[in-house]
Amino acid sequence: MEYKTTLTTCTYCGCGCNFYLETLDGKLTNTIPCKTSPVNEGKLCIKGWNVHQFVQNDRRLKKPLLRKGGELVEVEWEEALAYTADRLKAVTAEKGGDAVGFLASAKVTNEENYLLQKFARAAIGTNNVDHCARL
Fold first, then answer.
1. pLDDT grade, residue 126 (50/70/90)?
2. CATH code for 3-53?
């Protein structure tokens, strides 16, 4: 058996709490708060305590899905990205940037969420951006 802990930063909100992810034989098993973190001082909220669970959930999507013939079908990333880019161009050309909205995720870093809102505002021309992390 190989046991390992990895210090990381929680991605659920902007606080920046630190914790250790425990792995046993390469599989995430638990979350341990970092006692020396000046941000969370060894404490975690309920989301932080359970952050390891979503990574290996069997219901987690591992490939993009596109609707074909009324059903969702797994496709390669290239096809999904090309389809998304084409639809985004078509909608914004026909109806303008405010016809599009962006939803950011609590399961990515603040930097990645910043890039999404920057893309929405600078490239698409909309302020329709929201984030699902709530403190």
1. very high
2. 2.20.25.90
CB atoms inside a 10 Å sphere around CB 102: 17
Look at residue 134 in the predicted model and tell me its pLDDT: 56
Is 93 exposed, middle or buried (CB count within 10 Å of its CB: 0-12, 13-18, 19+)?
exposed
Length of the chain: 135
Kindly report, residue by residue over 35-55, the tens digit of the pLDDT: 999 999 999 999 899 988 888
For the range 14-20, what are the long-range contacts, defined as Cβ-Cβ under 8 Å and sequence gap of 24 or more?
A: 14/110, 14/133, 15/39, 15/40, 15/135, 17/44, 17/45, 17/48, 19/44, 19/48, 19/51
Residue 63 DSSP one-character state: S
What order do you get walking across the sheet with 3-9 strand by strand?
Answer: 3-9, 18-24, 27-33
- Is 0.90 topped by the overall pTM? no
Instruction: Enumerate the domain spans of the chain.
Output: 3-53, 61-95, 96-135
